[in-house]
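Sequence, structure tokens passed on for absentees:
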Amino acid sequence: MTAHYSAVALKAYALALMRANGVDEAQAASVAENLVWSELIGRASFGLQRLPIHIERVKRGVISCPCRTKFEKRSDAIVILDGGGGFGYYIGEIGMRRATDLAREYGVGVVGVRNSNFFGTGAYFVQLAAAAGMIAFAMSNSFPKVAAYGGLKSVLGTNPFAFGAPRRNGRSLLIDMATSALAGSTVREHIESDQPLPQGLAIDAQGAPITDPRKVDEGALLPFSGAKGFALSLMVEVVAGILTGAGVSHGVASMYRDFTRSGDNGHFFFALDVARFMEIEEYYARFEGLIDILKASNTKQEVLLPGEIRWRNYDENLAGGIALDCKTIDALDRLARPFGVAIAA
């Protein structure tokens, strides 16, 4: 069973719920915007169902509210952002916005982030830059769940990698993927639906396949495409973890199991101003020309661009309302009831 709500109503509800639980205004607004955007594009596993665990971490004192962020200039176009242990959504947003500002001034902007937490979907951040006429990358390391290629133990996170490029119609190219064979949120979905995992996605301590999603925590996820996924995950760990001074490997805390410390996730944001290479209309014409070639490569089946389904979901959900399942609604209502907070009809 599901119920439909407008994006405006869900943002107001999320804001009120976070305020009631001690989240400062600036961070609450950023988190609400990010979570509802994820709902709009059809990524419910990165939407409001994440709010209860975040509020629990706020109550346990491992997410700082407010957080004291600090930018440290390393060159004209490079800065390090200490997130002060705040919400990764908020820290990620101000980090990418600074990268975009730097790119507008210098052509490129790079922001490395340390002392942060889980930042949600990387597509949100590259879309911020794409909407400003920038090509962008966003990366984050995370708590170890994934084995190295040829290894048996969890040593790397799902380490997402996102890329965005603007289009004339505003529906940016959005590439956003975990570097593991499947995301941690997908494992939780399999647990909730009592569905086994296909072989080749997770292994136990002896390297045997795991198909029971409940046993993944006893073993490790595998990188996608073997050595290729491992290489990309390692790249994310180097730039988002090592280079920024953030936690590395087991130095990053589990969001769901470790309530003794902040996550210390590291992020890396890169923005490039298209206008420094060519007039924006020339860029659009060249990009759309490539898209025409791609679309024409199969006349029997539609060729979809990365992110194209997300934009269709966005338009549909913005017009018809966002569907929340009863489990998510119940979990949020349990948090909201003591404060008299409810979703507007």
Notes: The CA atoms of residues 197 and 234 lie 25 Å apart. The first helix runs from residue 7 to 20. The chain has a mean pLDDT of 96. The longest strand covers residues 108-116.
